[in-house]
Each structure stands twice: as C-alpha cells, then as structure tokens.
C-alpha cells in the first residue's frame, strides 16, 4: 500500500510541476508579447508641409489636442492628450491630427485602428464634410465584429469632432479613394456620419 501511495504522490507531483511550468511560461510569453506590442511615440515635429500650410516657414508652437483611444483598463474610448505642432490651415491640421490617431498608442491604451493603416488624403468640402481617405489596411487588417468596428469608427469621429467643432459637421470614410458601404460588414459608412 505504501508503494501505491508513493506512485500516486509522485504522479501528482509531476502533474503539479508541469502545470506550474506551463503557467509560468504562459505568463512570460504574454509579458513579452505585451512589451513588444507597444508602438513608438511619433516625433512632435510635423513633416515639412507646402508653403501654403505654413506661410512663415516657422515651426508653429506646440498645441495639446485630444486623440481618442481604447483605455485598456476600462475598455472605453477615452481622450488622450498629445502635443503637436499644428499648422493653421484646417485641412493640414486635420491630416496631422488623424495621422497621429492612426500611429499613436501610449502605454495603457489600445488603438482600435488596425496597424499598418495610413491616412492617404483629407478633404473638407463647402458643406463642412471631411473626407478621410484611409489605406485598405483599415478594412483588411480589421479584426471585425460589431463592437470592434464601432470602437474604430467612434475613435475617429470623436477625434475629428473634438478637434474641429466648427469646421467639420460630417465625416465620410473612404478607402483608397473610394466610398465604402461598411468597414467590416456592420456599420453603414455609405453616407457622411455625424457623432
């Protein structure tokens, strides 16, 4: 009977040991993946813009603007203050702010916009509709699902309307220069949106 108990205890010890190693390995891998998933902060200085965007050719002073990201703790879209050197021309300002939203992910936040997404172009028409032309990565790299799609659209809309309460009344999404009906099949993007 003693031999039988020793065998059972040794098997339990081995199972316990394997379980402990698996848990520690899983935590280590998770920490490594999280540390590598953080994006690098972009430079504060904007790229050289045409003279029309900055007639004096001086770098403008830094301004604080909000970009809206997913708070990793509360899982809500929340404003994150970033400091940018924004030019006075509204279209260039809009391009700078939305480009920052696409690239910026400080610690403790997640960007609902898929990695690799680029802002190709920005237009504002006479009815104050902003046309945001994103690369195909916005659609092709998206994880899908109603909630994820809503978070992406909400982050973009809140960022635009917070920065341009008077200059922009609606936002029309474009992908590679073409209007889209839906991002991943859930939210209707065929018409300009208002938040």
Overall description:
The protein has 195 residues and is an alpha+beta fold. It has one domain. It contains four helices and seven strands, in the order αββαβββααββ. Strands 4-5-6-7 form a four-stranded mixed sheet. A three-stranded antiparallel sheet has the order 2-1-3. The model is unreliable at 36-47 (pLDDT under 50).
The unreliable regions are 36-47
Query: What overall form do the CA principal axes indicate?
Result: elongated
Strand order of the largest sheet: 4-5-6-7
Oligomer: single chain
Mean of residue pLDDT values: 83
Strand count: 7
- Helix tally equals 4
Strand content: 15-25%
Number of domains: 1
Could you say which structural class the secondary elements and strand pairing correspond to? alpha+beta
Summarize the main sheet: 4 strands, mixed
Radius of gyration: 23 Å
Helical fraction: 25-40%
* Alpha-carbon distance between the two ends: 74 Å
Order of helices and strands: HEEHEEEHHEE
């Amino acid at each position: 009977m003693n031999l039988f108990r020793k065998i059972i205890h040794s098997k339990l010890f081995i199972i316990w040991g394997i379980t402990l190693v698996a848990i520690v390995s899983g935590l280590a891998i998770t920490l490594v993946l999280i540390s590598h998933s953080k994006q690098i902060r972009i430079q504060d200085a904007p790229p050289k813009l045409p003279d029309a965007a900055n007639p004096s050719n001086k770098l403008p002073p830094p301004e604080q603007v909000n970009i809206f990201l997913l708070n990793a703790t509360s899982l809500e879209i929340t404003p994150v203050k970033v400091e940018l050197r924004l030019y006075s021309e509204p279209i260039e300002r809009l391009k700078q702010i939305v480009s920052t939203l696409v690239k910026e992910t400080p610690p403790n936040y997640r960007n609902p916009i898929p990695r690799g997404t680029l802002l190709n172009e920005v237009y504002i028409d006479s009815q104050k509709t902003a046309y945001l032309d994103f690369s195909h990565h916005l659609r092709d790299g998206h994880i899908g699902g109603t909630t994820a799609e809503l978070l992406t659209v909400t982050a973009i809309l809140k960022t635009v309307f917070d920065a341009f309460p008077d200059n922009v009344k609606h936002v029309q999404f474009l992908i590679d220069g073409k209007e889209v009906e839906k991002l991943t099949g859930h939210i209707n993007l065929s018409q300009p949106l208002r938040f």
